[in-house]
Specification:
mainly alpha
């Protein structure tokens, strides 16, 4: 059974007010009341987002994430130089910035690539003006 968007909005507003009150009172993100209010707010927003999408086909502009959405490697000690995961660099092209690495197939068979006499290879007779009629 789908919830009405207006009811979901009322719950979201109440959750925002409760979150604000807890944050103002405790001023500590780890305080149990703040953590509880954060969870209620995230649930209320998700419910509202689903209700609006179900009723109107419109997605709200925010996403919610839980602690399960993050890898433990993301929060690893970054000061340890030997802790780098090799899998993070699998798609990195090692010679991406190697300017000397030119594939001849990409540039034709011109052995003097980059020389000033590149235009000497063209015959002027191949490019007659159309006005010569």
């Amino acid at each position: 059974m789908a919830i009405e968007p207006s009811s979901a909005l009322e719950r979201l507003i109440a959750a925002l007010e409760d979150f604000h009150a807890a944050a103002e009172k405790f001023q500590d993100p780890d305080a149990p009341a703040v953590v509880r209010a954060t969870d209620v707010l995230a649930d209320a927003y998700t419910l509202y987002d689903d209700a609006v999408y179900t009723e109107y086909g419109i997605e709200a502009p925010f996403d919610t994430y839980s602690d399960d959405d993050f890898d433990e490697d993301d929060h690893d000690d970054y000061d340890d130089e030997d802790d780098h995961d090799d899998e993070d660099y699998d798609d990195f092209d090692e010679d991406y910035d190697d300017e000397d690495d030119h594939d001849d197939d990409d540039f034709g068979d011109d052995d003097d690539f980059g020389d000033d006499d590149d235009f000497d290879d063209y015959d002027d007779d191949d490019y007659d003006d159309e006005d010569d009629d």
